[in-house]
Specification:
- The structure is a single chain.
- The chain is an alpha+beta fold.
- Helices cover 48% and strands 25% of the residues.
- It contains three helices and three strands.
Length: 93
């Protein structure tokens, strides 16, 4: 086998292994938020690699499910949740 081809295969395998490791490493945070906006109250769960990302994902999901126009969706996403519960990742040990 040509040396260049072998190096190319090893490089691709390394990149694939790195992406696989990064995608399965660590347990994400999970947060459940309840939003009250425009007379509606909705609860959604979101996950993320840190607590803020999990909260933001849950809020965006809740507001998106209300079917608001763009301006109201932005206002909804900026509102404070009336309930917030987050579960930190377990260490796995």
């Amino acid at each position: 086998m040509n040396k260049k081809v072998l190096l190319w295969i090893v490089g691709v395998a390394t990149v694939v292994a790195l992406f696989s490791y990064l995608s399965i490493s660590g347990t994400p945070y999970e947060c459940r938020v309840t939003i009250h906006f425009a007379g509606a109250e909705i609860t959604r769960t979101g996950a993320g690699h840190d607590k803020q990302e999990a909260i933001r994902t849950a809020i965006e999901s809740a507001c998106a499910s209300l079917g608001l126009n763009m301006a109201d969706d932005i206002r909804c996403e900026r509102s404070q949740p009336i309930d917030l519960q987050c579960q930190e990742p377990s260490s796995g040990y």
